[in-house]
């Protein structure tokens, strides 16, 4: 990390320029009308087929979280880092069931955001605003995670200057990269990340396949890799023998240790699976498809990425076996490629990781901007806004969201970037009762849902705030897992993801509140949807009448 390798840098810059050109060109790609409506700019014309959707949704889900944060956790020896593999496996049957219903009602009623649906379903502007606010808030640390991933690549390639560099040298390349991203996102909307996702996924598959074949030949096979990593973890564990014996820590290892860490592993897997498609960027990618069957096909095809994720996680173990020594775990995988591969292939790997952060960051900023425009700007500031004004507002908001994410990078600990994603997960999980349960029933009362959301948000945020960084007892937001306790009442030493505890409290208040409010005959509002909306598909007479296509759909 002491200097810049000209070959690796040249390859990296080539792919960076390639995706930049593609990002601006995407404004003309598959365009059925001008990009002055949210349907066109923010949802790609709602016309993506199976092939494009597979790359877009995959690019949306598998982010710097996958390429940097998860392997970094394994590199540091935290065995629970493998939770990311089962959580994606749990995820796809869930989305196979509920996302087609959300697609149908959104297309039938012209909804652009999850908060649009909540407002129509529960007749509550306050609840819709809460969902929109949560979506924006939860997206910011997720974008920040992408920034951390890009920064890791820039540091290793020599452009970031490392942790000891001044702020100007360290952060200027990152600002330039994100300014370019912001520019082509503003210009092309969702079409930009959709087109760039082809390059991103191709590079990622190439890099990981070569890595899992080549690295074992240099490190004594996978048996040798696991043996070397096991010895390194055991050496560390000797310094923590008392804590491990008392059940306070499971130690470093290749599989989750017995005791409290198993609960952390299980709750993180379940919580992350439930949270992922609550995020507005995941919903945005789904609503960009042209019929509901495309969602089901992708739910069946996307597990191919789970296989990829498992291989990427193993690179964290390979970095230990290769003797990678970095203070910042996020640098482990980029440093592994720099040390073990030729400069030109290291440049390809760096480009794959960086582009793997650009694509989801673009989608996330678009989704957050749509929430601002539809559910705050149009709802409270300019109710008579035209379609062109909505699109303009979203374009501007998408710029502000990206740079707002920088505040999370500057303000929160980055020892383990995965905590940024898990913090967002705590918040976005609190929208699950309104969105997912709301797709099937209106029994839960709108005011009870709002009260449950508020309690879950407050408790989850407080719990995360009081979690210190390891070795820094006075710090905050150092993790998202802790002993099971509720408002100071200790219930168990088992480590539980705060998002799950907050969601349980949320649901309890929603159910109890509903019983009380219905007994008091408090009005539940008027349902703005119809039962037939949830099964509608493209080409149905009722859908076609509402959508009123601008032009003949592109095949």
Q: What best-fitting shape do the alpha-carbon axes yield?
A: globular
Any idea what the CATH architecture of one domain is?
A: Up-down Bundle
Give the class-level CATH name of one domain.
Answer: Mainly Alpha
Q: What are the low-pLDDT stretches, counting only 5+ consecutive residues below 50? A: 247-256, 544-555
Q: State the distance separating the first and last CA atoms.
A: 48 Å
Could you say what the CATH topology of one domain is called?
Answer: Sodium/glucose cotransporter
Largest sheet: 2 strands, antiparallel
Calculate the mean pLDDT score and round it.
84
Rg estimate, integer Å: 23 Å
Which H/E pattern describes the elements?
HHHHHHHHHHHHHHHHHHHHHEEHH
List keywords for this structure.
Sodium/glucose cotransporter, 23 helices, two-stranded antiparallel sheet, single chain, mainly alpha, 555 residues
